[in-house]
Amino acid sequence: MFVTFVKNLILLKQIFLFLIFSLCFLPSALGQTQKINYESDRTLRNEERYPGAFILSKVDNQVYFDHNGIEVWCDNAIFYKEANFFKAYGNIRMQQGDSVSMTSNYAEYNGDTEFAFASGNVKMRRPETTLETDSLFFNRITQQAYYRSGGKVTDTASVLTSRVGRYFLNEDKYSFITDVVVKNPDYTIHSEQIDFYSENGNAYLYGPSTIESETSTVYCERGFYDTREDHGYFVKNSRIDYDNRILKGDSLYFNRKRSFASATNNIRVIDTINKSKITGHYAEVYRDKDSVFITKRAVAAMLQDKDSVFIHSDTLMVTGKPEQRVIRGFYDVRILKNDMSGRSDSIYTNQSSGITKLINLRRMGDKDPVLWSGENQMTGDTIQLISNPKTEKLDTLLVFNNAFLIQKDTIKGYNQIKGKYLVGLFDDNELSQVDIDKNTETLYYMRNEKDTLIGINKTLSSSIKILFEDRKITDIYYYNQVDGKLTPEPDFPPNARQLKGFNWRGDERIMSKKGLFEGQPEPKLTKIQGIPLPDEPEEFFDQREKNKPLLNKNSRLDPKILQNRKEDTLKFKHPNLPDIKEDLKNEKKKDSLETKEEVKIE
Questions:
Q1: Which domain holds residue 494?
Q2: Which distant-in-sequence residues (6+ apart) come within 8 Å of 470 by Cβ?
Q3: What's the rounded Cα separation, in Å, for the pair 173 and 201?
Q4: Is the whole-model pTM more than 0.85?
Q5: Which part of the chain is the Organic solvent tolerance-like N-terminal domain (predicted)?
Q6: Last residue of a domain, one of 476, 504, 532
């Protein structure tokens, strides 16, 4: 047993000595840099001009270098074998695997750092893109290429140019900075900073950016655009300008092929020709059809004879060319004008003819159209307002079927006039005359010149004419009177002081912009999916010791060139962690305010 123990002890000693030996000699072997292999038809030396270098030249075959997965062909080269560095000239071609190839007039390569530089008609090709520039740096360790003297990338759908560019081979991503332009046959993009993925053609826009075409201009300060499928998503001060419309919102979606755009939260659709604006929290715009659909607190605001007219409903639709705009509103329509307001189930407005129709499409009694002018309430199955398209002033009021006019008396009771049809005339946008026809009934509180009540007049006739002044009834004329009687107020039965069909809806009257939304729940705003800022990558040029430059001391480049410059870094990037926390606080505060805020109409 003791012998076995001794044998094991000797074996352990041998293993220990072997490990010590390995640790002494392996580091140099592991740290040894792989040398550049080369082939050349002609090899010369000129120690006076190129100390320690071989001069390699093409005769029948190009000079060839091979190093760690990269191959280089050229016509001539200066090869510093001990330094593991070469400079190549003439018809240069570099190949890395099957996916990356590059051509240039001049190139340098350091085998120790695996860092390359190319200049003169540089072209780097990938399966989906070709990069062209005057000079290019290529770091094989990080698999990144970089230019800062202007470059052009040709994609399957577009051509992208910028002053500064960085290509991440592993992600197949280009990061363009400063004066970035994307040119496509159908549009042009201008931006301060773009991240472009060549595999799918997706572009992320940062900073003030525009997408211009013959039919539209998109603006945003952060956005995404699929350059091949021609659609995008935009946030932060985003807007779309058409020939006669401007669409704004917290977020916008745009599809050029379908001539379609949609907007979410705090939307404004501005009609630049007809001086109107629609607001809400969700909208769809079809450019070719000249149509707009908007919902979630939808409000249309129009300028009419220097007065603003507001139309609110659950859903608004605007269709037609600028000179023939038609507005349709559905469900719980509310109208507000300086001297008039109204409600209905639905509304139709034709701006070219000046006709506005208040309709009850669903035939719900509580949604019968109602219109207020001063203390006058008018109801009926359908109400039409006709204005002069040129002067934009109200001209005629028409009420079809079950016309009912109610005016609240100054002291008590209600003046009431009903019939089958009602025609009203306006003078300078104020109701001046009303004619009611067919089976008319009147219940009117008669007063003398001192405004003292002298009795209640109840009359039946075939038609009635009523004159107004300052929105108050001044005269009533009865035609083909059938029956009429003035009764002292104390003798008039209280239960007979309302005509059949009487329905005073004064509590529904809209007195201000706030009243457009009275009784309605706050809209639940859609959570906007943001586009995060990119993380700033590590600096392209490694911070290295002076005696270990990225390129050999025999490089023709000034070492100062191989330094990072502040002006070439990302302008729009992800903030530091403390800033993120502060931004999240601000976003929550902003969301809270937006939820409580009323729709603003200028």
A1: 368-504
A2: 374, 430
A3: 10
A4: no
A5: 58-192
A6: 504
